[in-house]
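Help needed: design a sequence for this.
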């Protein structure tokens, strides 16, 4: 049950492509894959590699983790909540790139505080140019 079928991935990709107002050809060009290959993925006839999913996610400006779960590459049961939270944050058009990164950083800090480790898409605080120190913990 943890593995999702490729058809669900294809339907999801088609929906995301349409939401981004891209033609199949435009997305294929942006992702660096052939138009027929992308069409086969959308129709559930092909299962793409993680690398292809990464390229498609980047072209659609969505989370690659979401695509990995839909393709059955990540364990959907274990990773779904974290992936969904990240996907919602990254997909919000009202936020700037920097705001999305800060929200992801805060989310990761709360997860770490509660004993969960960072996922593959975790934002490293050093990447944001900030300090790892928590100002509230230094008061004393």
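Sure. Designed sequence:
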């Amino acid at each position: 049950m943890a593995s999702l079928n490729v058809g669900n991935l294809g339907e999801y990709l088609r929906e995301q492509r349409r939401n981004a107002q891209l033609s199949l050809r435009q997305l294929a060009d942006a992702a660096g894959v052939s138009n027929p290959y992308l069409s086969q993925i959308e129709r559930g006839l092909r299962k793409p590699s993680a690398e292809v999913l990464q390229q498609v996610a980047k072209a659609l400006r969505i989370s690659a983790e979401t695509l990995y779960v839909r393709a059955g590459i990540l364990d959907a049961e274990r990773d779904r909540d974290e992936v969904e939270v990240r996907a919602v944050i990254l997909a919000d058009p009202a936020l700037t790139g920097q705001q999305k990164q800060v929200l992801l950083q805060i989310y990761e800090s709360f997860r770490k505080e509660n004993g969960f480790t960072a996922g593959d898409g975790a934002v490293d605080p050093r990447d944001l140019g900030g300090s790892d120190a928590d100002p509230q913990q230094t008061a004393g």
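The first helix runs from residue 6 to 19.
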